[in-house]
Structure formats: structure tokens, C-alpha cells
Design brief:
472 residues, 2 domains, 9-stranded mixed beta sheet, 6-stranded parallel beta sheet, 19 helices, binds adenosine-5'-diphosphate
Length: 472
């Protein structure tokens, strides 16, 4: 198949979160299965800063396309200095860029304009609200065009809460017929929704774990679109994300202080000392180091951590946090690292190298998310012999099994409620097991033996593409 991935972020060119990791790995995994895979993303300022220099591919009146080959995958970039030559992808800590509707509307138009140059695609795999207009433009304006008539679109929701909501006036500016502005069309409580466009006009929809695919059908986590999604339930699938073990693997990781493996974990201690050094925390073998790498947003439950920091420290732990996001939480965590200097460190910013160091150097990894479509760091953690402590929700619930010291089964610790008491109870259990070295090693080995490589998930996507290429 010819498969085209459309995404607003892709590793190693541009990243703010897990979406970039997924689109950085899935196309390569599918190309290994014999498919021709291409990816399109905006030519952000950071692409050059990350050391890439794509070549001019095609120039049209309204669009300029760039290209490079990365592994087996064709990567196309859409250039627009006006829209993409900025310091961030979507906005600054004080808020989103005000012209995001135009930035990603332009992106969708450019994608449709690129296809005649790269040839017919069997599948156009769109991701999140930023690409929601792609299925709409194809269905409304190109379905009779032989280049698109057999193409199927899959729309993957990586996070239901980010919907791309904009004023009604953008309907006209984005060439979308005004009659579609109603509750059965693109309207969402008086605004137009890019996410709704993706859900309504794609041939099939998926999300990034079975658990989250179920949860978004409910009032609690459907973010106001559970009704619409229920009408498309038959076309909704859940496929868990994989891990790119060529990037996240302590045996080969070039960013960590010392490499180690499941057979020889000697290097992990050096990695821990390295992280402690970064954060100005003194090494004490009796104190487990808890790592957190996260967008600082309420979704991630970081307010719960902030609120119970006193009690967390009473359990005899140290905490190394790396995060970036809402200004409010940037400041709260800066404050906490001052207040608890020597035991809590917070680095506010985006730092891929430090993220690898934390995965390797921590004893546990905390993810108290309110909701979590898939979550990747719990999977990375298992590979780095770092025990995930997570809230039982979405992909975290699907992938982490609570450790039972009696049966010695389980690969982490899990709690149910999004409250400090539940988090503390789970962490207390984890700290107790940490003190029993034999039991702890069993737990580490349980995590290390889990295989979340992309191969299995890529096969599921392939099956899904095959299924709806035939039936729709
Ligand atoms: P989400 O996509 O909701 O942010 P995921 O768990 O799916 O959450 O993916 C997060 C990805 O982004 C992981 O690869 C994580 O290591 C990375 N990440 C998040 N915040 C930072 C940061 N401040 N610095 C470096 N990497 C980060």
C-alpha cells in the first residue's frame, strides 16, 4: 500500500509530545512490512535547528514543498514562513497562537495540493485536530477526482481534549460551506471544530489504546463528542502505541551516563547518580528517585503531585521532574524545587537528552494522569528498569499491571482515584517493595520482559487499513 501520514509533529524533526514519537516510528515499522510510507509536516523553525536541511521538492503558486528521505520513509515539508517560522509549534505558555485555524487550515490545503505530485495514496492517515480538515477537503472537493476516489482516510485521536475550536468566521476563510455550521456538522457550541471535521469525514477513526477508545464513548471522557463518536462506533478502533526501541533502549542509548541491559544492570546506578547530580540531590541508597517527564497540564495530574508533595517526601523519596506547559504549573514546580531543595528538582523546559537520563536514572516513574490516551513513558520506563507508578486510566490501565508481592506478578503500581491519598498509598507500596531487593529485582525483570515494540502495533494498523480499504 501507499500510506501517507499527516501529522503536526514528527520525531526527530519536531516534537512536543507522544504524537511525534508515534509518527516518528509507525511509518518506518510499516515500511519494513513492505509498504511505501510518506509523512507530511509543516516546515517549522525547529526542523533546521534539529540539524535537517530538506531540499526543495516542488513549488506552486500557493505552496512550496520540501523533501528528505529518512530511513525508508519519504518526508515532505510544507513551507510557510508566515505560519511556521516560529519558536514553538502551537503557542507560548501564555496561550495558543491566535492564527492556529489559518496555520492548520493552510496545512490541510497544502496536503491535498501535494498529492498530485507524489501520486495516488491508498491510505491517508490523519492525526489529531490539526489534520481534521484533510478528510473534509477530500470528501467535499476531491471525491470525484480519480487521484482520490479510492483513497481511504483514517483519523487517529491521540487526545480528545484538544479539539481545534475557532470562531465561525473561519468557515468562510477556510472555504468550508456555511451550511455545515450546525450541530450535525462542524459546530461545537457556537464555534467550529477541526476535530469534529476529522471524526465526521474520515472513513474510519482510531485511538491509541483500546481503553481510551472505550473511554471516549463515555460522557466522562468524551469531551462533549461522545454522542457523535457513538454514532460512528462501528468505525472506531483502538490500537496501542509501540515503542521505538532503537531510540529508547538502555543498551544503546547515547544520552545516558552508562549503558546497561536486563542481564547487566550495573550501569543504572551511575545513571541515577548522574541525574541526581543534574538536580543537586545527594545520593542516598535508601531513597528511591522518582522521575517525571511531562507536559505541565492538568491532564497529567501534576496538581495532585504538587498538593501532596509534603506527604510524598515523608515516604523517603526524591523527585526529579522535567516539564513544560501552563505558566501556572511552570511556576508552581519552580517554587517546589526551591522549597524542597536537595530532595525535589524541577527543570522547566523541553530537553530530550535529560528525558533519556531521567528514564535511565530513576527508580520509579510517576504518571498520575486524569486521563491518558496511551502514555509512552510508562512503556519506556519498563525498558529502563524504572518502575511505573500510574493511575489506572486509558493506556496506562491497559499496559501496567499492579505488582502483587505474593504472586510476584505485575510490572508496576496502579491506583484508581485521581486523589493524593490514592497516589500516596500506591507510592507507599512501591517504596516498601523497593526496600526488598529480591522482590524489587523480580518486579524490574517483569517490566523488562514486556515487549511493546512497534512491530505488533504496525501489524494491527496494517490489518485495519486492509479491512477498510476493502469494505468501505
Ligand atoms: P503526551 O503526548 O500526552 O504529552 P505521552 O506520554 O504520550 O504524552 O508522550 C510524551 C512524550 O513527550 C514522551 O516521549 C516524553 O518523554 C516526551 N516529553 C514530554 N515532556 C517533555 C519535556 N519537557 N522534555 C522532553 N521530553 C518530554
Amino acid at each position: 500500500m501507499n500510506i501517507l501520514f499527516v501529522s503536526s509533529e514528527v520525531v526527530p524533526f519536531a516534537k512536543t509530545g507522544g504524537l511525534a514519537d508515534v509518527i516518528g516510528a509507525l511509518p518506518e515499522a510499516l515500511s519494513k512490512r513492505g509498504h511505501t510510507c510518506s509523512v507530511i509536516l509543516p516546515l517549522y523553525k525547529c526542523v533546521k535547528e534539529n540539524g535537517f536541511d530538506p531540499a526543495l521538492f516542488k513549488e506552486e503558486k500557493d505552496f512550496k514543498f520540501y523533501f528528505l528521505k529518512h530511513g525508508n520513509v519519504n518526508i515532505y515539508f510544507i513551507e510557510s514562513d508566515e505560519y511556521y517560522n516560529r519558536d514553538q509549534l502551537y503557542g507560548i505558555p501564555q496561550g495558543d497562537y491566535p492564527d492556529n485555524a489559518l496555520r492548520f487550515g493552510f496545512f490541510a490545503k497544502a496536503i491535498v495540493a501535494l498529492i498530485p505530485h507524489i501520486g495516488r495514496q491508498d491510505i491517508i492517515h490523519c492525526n489529531d485536530w490539526q489534520t481534521g480538515l484533510v478528510p473534509l477537503y477530500i470528501r467535499l472537493f476531491h471525491k470525484k477526482d480519480s487521484l482520490f476516489s479510492d483513497t481511504k482516510t483514517l483519523f487517529t485521536i491521540h487526545n480528545m481534549a484538544y479539539q481545534g475550536l475557532f470562531g465561525r468566521e473561519y468557515m468562510r476563510r477556510l472555504n468550508i460551506p456555511g451550511k455545515l455550521f450546525n450541530m450535525h456538522g462542524l459546530e461545537f457550541y457556537g464555534r467550529m471544530s477541526f476535530l469534529k471535521a476529522g471524526i465526521i469525514y474520515s472513513d474510519a477513526i482510531s485511538s491509541v489504546s483500546k481503553g481510551y477508545a472505550r473511554e471516549i464513548l463515555t460522557k466522562e471522557l468524551g469531551c462533549g463528542l461522545d454522542g457523535l463518536l457513538n454514532t460512528r462506533k462501528k468505525a472506531l478502533y483502538g490500537i496501542v502505541n509501540g515503542v521505538d526501541y532503537s531510540v529508547w533502549n538502555p543498551e544503546t542509548d547515547k544520552f545516558i551516563a552508562k549503558k546497561y541491559s536486563a542481564r547487566d544492570m550495573g550501569g543504572k546506578l551511575e545513571c541515577k547518580k548522574d541525574v541526581l547530580g543534574e538536580y543537586g540531590i545527594k545520593y542516598d541508597p535508601s531513597r528511591p528517585l522518582i522521575g517525571m517527564i511531562t507536559r505541565l497540564a492538568e491532564q497529567k495530574g501534576i496538581d495532585i503531585v504538587a498538593d501532596c508533595m509534603d506527604k510524598l517526601l515523608e515516604l523517603g523519596i526524591d523527585l526529579a521532574l522535567l516539564g513544560f506547559g501552563d505558566e501556572k504549573y511552570n511556576n508552581i514546580f519552580k517554587g517546589l524545587s526551591e522549597k524542597y531543595k536537595g530532595h525535589v528538582g524541577a527543570r522547566i523546559g523541553f530537553d530530550n537528552v535529560l528525558a533519556h537520563k531521567i528514564e535511565a536514572g530513576s527508580d520509579m516513574f510517576l504518571m498520575p494522569s486524569r486521563y491518558e490516551p496511551c502514555g509512552l513513558n510508562q512503556l519506556y520506563s519498563m525498558k529502563y528498569a524504572t518502575v511505573p507508578v500510574v493511575r489506572a486510566v486509558g493506556g496506562l490501565d491497559d499496559t501496567v499491571e499492579d505488582f502483587d508481592p505474593v504472586t510476584k506478578k505485575g510490572n508496576g503500581f496502579k491506583f484508581q482515584e485521581a486523589y493524593g491519598e490514592a497516589l500516596l498509598a500506591s507510592m507507599k507500596k512501591a517504596v516498601e517493595v523497593f526496600k526488598n531487593k529480591d522482590l524489587w529485582n523480580t518486579l524490574l525483570q517483569n517490566g523488562l520482559s514486556c515487549d511493546y515494540s512497534w512491530a505488533a502495533s504496525a501489524e494491527k494498523y496494517e490489518k485495519l487499513y486492509n479491512e477498510f480499504v476493502k469494505i468501505i
